[in-house]
């Protein structure tokens, strides 16, 4: 185990390891503060992602090694190390280790990579073996290496045993309840054929009750999708009719909107024409016009263009109009002043 002096920040290193356990399931501690394994499955195949923390971590990015080796743009096919994951390429001391590992596992779960042949950490037959066997096999390898290098302590071995007792047993018991066939009943030749003959292996998988159940569920889902598709086709005519009605309503609304705009313009014009202030201005113009007519009649009489009777008749009429309009204008002005003083 590394000493405290070998770490730049031991507390922050522990915090990063805590994020690894928070954001990911099935995390097994191999060497405290140095090496961890994360088990996951993709396309019914078991994988183990080994997380190696160097002496300079978290200032230096961790090493992620995938077993078995796969063909993927993020993975070095020779070493199995994940090198080109975005979280690793953009890694900084402030990155979360748990999120970096989570993104890598999600990528392999969403897009299952192809396994390189002769990459024998998890063989093709492990598709039908319990999870505990795969984990035990991997942990046996880890224990062997650890014993040779004296790096795995008794406490670390106890942590592995506790993980097996908590995780492997329930999964194993659920898989052996008639979901998976008993391989012990097969002969050696059948087992070899199962391992070497892909067609025999596929037939063997298809005869499994769990696969048959999945096929039945798939058929049921296909039938349900076909029924929904037929229902959608039957409602297509009704939807087209509703769309046509909606288009007509939109056109009607557009025409009513245009008509409303025209009427609103007329209303505003009428409102301006009949506004009290505008009427007062028109009365003032009319008074001025009547006074001008009176002056014109006087000038015509003085120039001898009209006789006395015509002058009196025209002058009296124009003066009467001027007086009436002036009275109306003055009365309207008083009313407007009164409204203005009242705050209207």
Automatic annotation (TrEMBL):
One biological process GO term for this chain? protein targeting to membrane
One GO term describing the cellular component: late endosome membrane
**Stretches that traverse the bilayer:** none
Per its UniProt record, what InterPro entries does this chain match?
Answer: Mod_r
Pfam families associated with the record = Mod_r
Keyword Membrane recorded: no
Residues in VPS37 C-terminal domain copies: 257-344
Q: How does it sit in the membrane?
A: Peripheral membrane protein
Localized where? Late endosome membrane
Entry keyword annotation includes Transport: yes
Family to which this protein belongs = Belongs to the VPS37 family.
Annotated protein name in UniProt: VPS37 C-terminal domain-containing protein
Say which species the protein is native to.
Glossina pallidipes (Tsetse fly)
């Amino acid at each position: 185990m590394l000493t405290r002096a070998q770490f730049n920040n031991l507390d922050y290193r522990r915090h990063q390891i805590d994020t690894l356990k928070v954001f990911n399931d099935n995390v097994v501690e191999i060497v405290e503060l140095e090496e961890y394994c994360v088990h996951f499955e993709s396309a019914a195949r078991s994988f183990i992602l080994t997380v190696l923390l160097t002496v300079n971590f978290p200032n230096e990015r961790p090493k992620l090694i995938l077993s078995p080796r796969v063909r993927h743009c993020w993975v070095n096919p020779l070493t199995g190390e994940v090198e080109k994951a975005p979280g690793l390429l953009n890694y900084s001391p402030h990155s979360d280790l748990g999120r970096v590992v989570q993104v890598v596992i999600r990528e392999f779960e969403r897009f299952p990579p192809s396994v390189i042949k002769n990459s024998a950490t998890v063989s093709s037959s492990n598709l039908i073996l319990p999870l505990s066997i795969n984990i035990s096999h991997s942990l046996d390898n880890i224990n062997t290496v650890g014993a040779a290098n004296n790096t795995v302590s008794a406490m670390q071995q106890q942590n592995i045993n506790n993980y097996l007792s908590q995780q492997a047993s329930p999964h194993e018991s659920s898989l052996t309840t008639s979901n998976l066939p008993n391989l012990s009943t097969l002969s050696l030749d059948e087992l070899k054929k199962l391992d070497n003959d892909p067609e025999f292996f596929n037939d063997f998988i298809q005869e499994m009750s769990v696969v048959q159940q999945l096929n039945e569920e798939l058929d049921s889902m296909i039938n349900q999708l076909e029924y929904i598709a037929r229902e959608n086709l039957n409602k297509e005519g009704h939807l087209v009719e509703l769309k046509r009605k909606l288009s007509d309503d939109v056109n009607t609304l557009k025409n009513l909107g245009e008509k409303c705009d025209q009427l609103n313009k007329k209303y505003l014009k009428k409102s301006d024409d009949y506004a009290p202030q505008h009427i007062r201005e028109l009365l003032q113009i009319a008074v001025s016009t009547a006074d001008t007519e009176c002056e014109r009649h006087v000038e015509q009489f003085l120039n001898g263009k009209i006789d006395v009777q015509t002058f009196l008749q025209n002058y009296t009429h124009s003066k009467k109009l001027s007086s009436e309009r002036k009275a109306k204008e003055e009365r309207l002005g008083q009313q407007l002043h009164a409204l203005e003083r009242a705050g209207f």
